[in-house]
Description:
With 155 residues, this protein is an alpha+beta fold. The chain contains 3 helices and 6 strands; from the N terminus they run H-H-E-E-H-E-E-E-E.
Amino acid sequence: MADINDAKPEMTGLEQLQSLVKTGKRPGIAVSLDFDLVELGDGIAVFSGIPGDHAYNPINAIHGGYAATLLDSACGCAVHTKLSASQLYTTLELKISYLRAMTRDTGRVRAEGKVISFGRRAAFAEAKLIGEDGTVFATATSTLLVMDKPNRPLK
């Protein structure tokens, strides 16, 4: 995360994400798909975006990967808020249920993620992708591996 924010090695996961929001910097995937981290809390992360032409697929709808990316980000960052300064995580499994198609007319959507369980080695999170009118477009559950940071920087 050092490339996109002012995170320091002694920062907790929540502090790292708060620093990211404070700087206004976004990771490449958020720039590519045009979405933002808009809310953080203990075990909670919310992303928001407007699906548009940039996320269309050949069948004239928003690609399922757009929803999956927002939901994966919400689940992952919800877990990220629970990390100590000496921990990191990676997604082991992500299950998406698509409930309704999105189009360029959908408007703003929110991916609301929350931690269900956070243990020494595994975390479980869930998220839902919701339109401004309350329509649920997709849901996700995720299993994440929690581990200690290596003694050397990751490349």
